[in-house]
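not sure who needs this but someone in the group chat was asking about Ornithine cyclodeaminase/alanine dehydrogenase from Deinococcus yavapaiensis KR-236 so here u go. i didnt clean anything up, its just raw.
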Amino acid sequence: MSHGPVTLAVLDDATIRSLLVWPDVIELIDVTFAADARGQATVLPVVGHSLNGGRYSLKTSHLRLGNGEEMLEVFGLKMGSYFPGNVERHLPTHSAAMLLGDPRTGQPAALLAANAITEFRTAAAGAVAARRLAREDASVVALFGTGGQARAQIEALTHVRSVREVRVWSRSRERAESFVDRLNLPGVTAKVVMDGQAACHEADLVVTVTPATRAIIEREWITPGTHVNAMGSDAPGKQELDPALVASAKVVVDRRGQSVGIGELQAPVARGLMRVEDVHAELGEVCAALRPGRENDREITVFDSTGVSFQDTALAGMALRVATARQALKSVSL
């Protein structure tokens, strides 16, 4: 049979932001991680390439959640890029788009801007990890990084813990002060702390969202009972945490293979400080109650997030479902 025009549902970032609410997103990502641990997600290896001072990657997966009329089945791929030189071009450094297929026919079905999806799913994974691994009374956050993902991380955390204080660190005082001025979350006091060790002192949660390629958090800065969400390492050579910290903590990762290849396990494994087998669990195993999360108030826990494709596919599927119900979809024929 010959091919006619391909009609795709289309969603832009602004529409997606208007459709998503944090409690629903966090719950979906929690359920999705658990489904992965139960074998309900197929995730292909990440394909990445560096060019012209930047890097792009392709992530793809197939996911089936639930049963009957409420079942959500999605497959697709995301192309994401990080080009730090775009700052000088007055362009975003991170960009992403997704293509989804119809799981019944295999036909291309939807094209989505994926910048909002990436922001929401990454922060939601941090919130899920904090809900499972941070102390129940955690309220003081040390935040390293002031980009777009930084605000999303704090917003999501406020839905799983009673955050009252955020200490903001950045290599640029100007950016840190601007971030603090704009954060403006009810019940949350934010302040600039330019000394990293001081920011971590007696913090309950440490969140790193930077493109660092060497450690910005030292082992001796982290006190017993702290939980660390390491969200920035998602490519070869990236590193935010002291390898000694990773090797000595209870480590939970989103995907073991990705953590070794592009995440925080790169350095400690390469230096012989730990083995992949030393990882306590994947986050999905904790969400599915196959492995315990935090077991006492003295543990130092670390969650390494590299970003797994099923997070994108699940959230894209939710956005499409909500957009359809609210008649917010557009379409294009190719």
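also The domain at 135-307 is CATH 3.40.50.720 (Rossmann fold). if thats useful
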